[in-house]
Design goal:
The complex is a heterodimer. By secondary structure, chain A is mostly helical. Chain A has one domain: Arp2/3 complex 21 kDa subunit ARPC3. Chain A contains 7 helices and no strands. In chain A, helix 2 runs antiparallel to helix 3. Chain A starts with a helix and ends with a helix. The relative contact order of chain A is 0.14. By secondary structure, chain B is α+β, with helices and mostly antiparallel strands. Helix content of chain B is 21%, strand content 32%. In chain B, strands 2-1-7-6 form a 4-stranded antiparallel β-sheet. A 3-stranded antiparallel β-sheet of chain B has the order 3-4-5. The longest helix of chain B has 23 residues. Chain B starts with 9 loop residues before the first helix and ends in a 12-residue tail after the last strand. The chains are: A mainly alpha, B alpha+beta. Chains A and B meet through helix 6 and helix 7 of A and helix 1 of B.
Chain lengths: 181, 130
């Protein structure tokens, strides 16, 4: 496999763009698949797992902030083109905020958080961003009453996505190694 | 590249415990304030447009909010819901019946919101324990 890899003669930037394209496609696929998961009774409708965060987190931890932001924005554009402008801004705000939190946590010296902690923090940041946009769009502060539900659900969703990322890490690493020179 | 990043560290557990604690603190007022004399407040574009005392509703009726996408509310004795909406995801309709203080349903595309507020009657005890 190594021999095959060394024969491909492409620049570092090109392979980076290619890998980012694949990661973005995976994020889109995950956010699409997410729509097929039936809503869990007792939870507010519209609450989602944020499966795309798996890919964003992987990108942030291995390729840095700019790359993760790229994936987030591409995902937001996809959501915007399939579900409308409101969904675009919701996705963008949540995504960008969670990417920032993610990268800040990953940059901390000695990195006190494991995958699970970063994932929970991201999910909370994502919901916070969406809540802020919902408040701005609707012009009322009444969505604040959703906050406790969203916080609790972010905890659950963060744990689930974090666990999935932990399982998928080796596979994602292998995938990126094809593009690394 | 950190390929073997630890899954769980002590800071993670601390974070999760703190979040659970905040959740409990935020949920408490919801549970303490629930009483039957509910008032449904309807907001449109962030402004209050209607206030319905749900206990005094004798016969169920519908309200057309006149928004785009259209929203129709259904009011019954003690409860209210979004009956239908022409928006894409219909999250407001899926929210179902609202009856207890703190219950909320919103329709983002049409910028409407229904919140149940508890009647703040001061002569009633907040909570009774035996």
């Amino acid at each position: 496999m190594n021999g095959k890899k060394s024969k491909i003669n492409i620049s570092k930037n090109t392979s980076r763009v290619a890998l980012l394209g694949i990661l973005s496609a995976q994020a889109l696929a995950l956010s699409f698949i997410e729509n097929f998961i039936p809503p869990i009774p007792g939870l507010p409708p519209g609450a989602k797992l944020g499966l795309a965060n798996i890919v964003t987190m992987f990108t942030a931890s291995t390729m840095g902030f700019t790359s993760a932001l790229c994936v987030t924005i591409i995902k937001a554009l996809f959501v915007g083109s399939t579900r409308g402008v409101t969904a675009f801004f919701m996705s963008l705000a949540g995504g960008v905020l969670s990417t920032i939190v993610m990268c800040v946590l990953l940059q901390i010296k000695k990195n006190p958080f494991g995958i699970l902690g970063v994932s929970v923090a991201c999910a909370i940041a994502h919901n916070t961003g969406q809540l802020i946009v919902a408040t701005i769009i609707s012009g009322t502060a009444m969505f604040a009453s959703y906050a406790p539900f969203l916080l609790f659900f972010a905890l659950v969703a963060g744990c689930i996505t974090g666990s999935i990322l932990n399982v998928l890490m080796p596979a994602l690493e292998r995938q990126s190694s094809f593009f690394r020179r | 590249m950190k390929s073997n990043k630890p899954f769980l560290k002590r800071a993670d557990i601390i974070l999760i415990v703190i979040v659970i604690f905040i959740c409990i603190v935020l949920f408490l007022p919801n549970f303490l304030n629930r009483n039957s004399s509910a008032v449904a407040v309807v907001y449109k574009n962030g402004k209050e447009v209607q206030r319905i005392s749900l206990d005094s509703v004798a016969k169920s009726y519908e309200i057309n909010l006149g928004t785009e996408p259209a929203n129709i509310l259904l009011v019954e004795k003690g409860r209210i819901c979004y009956k239908s909406a022409t928006c894409h995801d219909k999250l407001c309709v899926k929210q179902g019946w609202l009856s207890k203080s703190g219950d909320t349903a919103a329709c983002l595309p049409s910028k409407t919101l229904v919140v149940i507020e508890g009647q703040s009657s001061t002569d009633e005890p907040d909570i009774i324990s035996y």
